[in-house]
Amino acid sequence: MRRSIFAKVFLGYLLIIVILTLLLLGLSFKTIRGFYLDNQRRNLESITRFLSPLITPLIQNEEFWALDSMVKDLGRDSQTRITIVLPDGKVIADSDKDPSLMENHRERIEIKQALNRPSGSSLRYSETVETNMLYVASSIIAGDQILGVLRVSLYLESIKKLLDRLMVRIISISLILLFIALLVSYTFSRGLLRPIKALSDASRQIAQGDLDNKVLLYKNDELGDLAKNFNLMTEELKNLVTKLSQKQDQLTSIISSIQTGLLVINKKGAIILCNKSLEEMVNVPEPEGKLYWEVIREPNLVSMLRSPMESKAVKTGEISLNDRIFSVSITSTGQEQELVVVFHDITALKNLERVKKDFVVNVSHELRTPLTSIKGYLSILEEMCNSEQGKYLEVVKRHTERLISIVQDLLVLSSLEERKPKLNIVNIHAQDLIENMKLMFGPRISEKNLKLRVELDPELHAFRGDFFYLEEMLGNLVDNAIKYTEKGEIHLYFTTKDSNVVIEVRDTGIGIGAENLDRIFERFYVVDKSRSREMGGTGLGLSIVKHIVLLHSGDIRVKSIPGEGTVFTITIPLSFS
């Protein structure tokens, strides 16, 4: 149940006042009662000191009958009960009862105290007179001998009546004070909570959108400062909302005007934002609020969006939609787990790329036949020419062979770049690849005085892949290593790691600068162009290597230090199929 602040404050005050009043009543009554009993105890002690000299001679002379008579007279006059007890506990005189009929008093608390020290007292119920009494006893001493005990007691009935009257008066005063305190608390609570209610009403109106609302509170205290700060906050909030609204309108206008498709998806898969270009692309009006797979029925996109993403990582891919090709980039917003998907229309680029590939393939096919013929006729001319003419024919032949190599590499690369090149997947033994490398490159390695070192993990028995393509890949890497290594060794290393086969090709050659590492897999890119021409390089070998690795769902990495050598590391799944 909702309870107002006024009720909480007032009930809090009420609870504190009631508790303090009850504590005041209890402590006051206890203090007054204790003070009154202490005062009566001192009066009784004064009576014992007054009576002791009168009683001592009678005890010494054993005039117990006279003592009893005197005690009865003194008891009536002082309105107290007086009792004389011998050290053995025998009662010899009492102002209210016949001492001969009274039981032994040696075990009475006050008597025991008086026998052990000069005086004693107790507040207890009397079995003899059957009422509560206050007892004060003092020993009667003659010389070093205790003759007996003088006990003076007072009936507590009179004390109780007095305390009852006092209690009624204290309660009456407390009730009056309680009423006054509650009245003051009520007035104070209302005065304190009135400005708070005004602030609450104003904040409620602001929450409902009324940013022009103000709190009029003329107080020179903290509540007045709070009202001023509240009004300033409202003004700042109004300015901020205005700026945000302008920014939102500007952002909406920009998003609507860009030609690239934009899509924002929440973690449940619902579209929370899209622009006009996307609506036209998917041909679905007002897709916001719908699930993305209902709007874009493209399996590749659904697969990309459903796979887990690292925080703030960018995932890219390509999809075909309505006879158009789009490059898709997906970014996670982080904590909100929303995905921002951007669609770039690359249909024209893909068409141009296809035209270029077709052109390269056609030209390569057309050039292969005449180049082969030229090479054949050059061989015939070599036999017919003299030594002087032979030098020129040798230059023509070398360039012709380089052109043929370029054409062959272009045809291989074009074959690899097809969407689904046909792979002949077989079980491959690393030793077979190594033997082929020794056959192909052994003479060149010996010619340059290099050393071929091979390490084969005994745990690696066989792995799956296309033998022809993997041989082409390894051959290109070894060929490059030989070309750019003048001394030292070439190291082939085969091992397994995490269900993958890892192949490393290391050399101790000239190395590659850090500025070139990102581009070495591009077509026709060579680090040292003059050296590459001298050695017949086409600039296509590493591009072919990368495509073969990707066809086998693998990964290739390169590390190099200029002057020390280069390491190519290829990782391919063992069970590729």
Provide a quick synopsis of the model.
The chain has helices spanning 5-60, 64-78, 109-116, 157-207, 222-257, 276-282, 292-295, 299-306, 347-384, 387-416, 430-447, 467-483, 529-534, 541-551, and strands at residues 81-85, 91-94, 119-126, 131-142, 145-155, 261-265, 271-274, 314-321, 324-332, 339-345, 425-428, 451-456, 463-466, 489-497, 500-507, 555-561, 565-573. The chain is α+β, with helices and mostly antiparallel strands.
Attribute tags:
17 strands; 53% helix; 577 residues; alpha+beta; Helix Hairpins; Beta-Lactamase; 14 helices
Number of strands: 17
Oligomer: single chain
Strand content: 15-25%
**Which fold does the CATH topology of the largest domain refer to?**
Beta-Lactamase
Mean pLDDT: 78
In CATH, the architecture of the largest domain is 2-Layer Sandwich
- Kindly report the spatial arrangement of strands forming the biggest sheet: 2-1-5-4-3
Notes on the protein architecture:
The chain has 577 residues and is of the alpha+beta class. The protein has four domains: 5-162, 2-Layer Sandwich (Beta-Lactamase); 259-340, PAS domain (Beta-Lactamase); 350-416, Helix Hairpins; 425-573, Histidine kinase-like ATPase, C-terminal domain (Heat Shock Protein 90, 2-Layer Sandwich), CATH 3.30.565.10. It has 14 helices and 17 strands. Strands 2-1-5-4-3 form a five-stranded antiparallel sheet, with helices on both faces. Strands 7-6-10-9-8 form a five-stranded antiparallel sheet, sandwiched between helices. The longest helix is centred in the first third of the chain and has 56 residues, at 5-60.
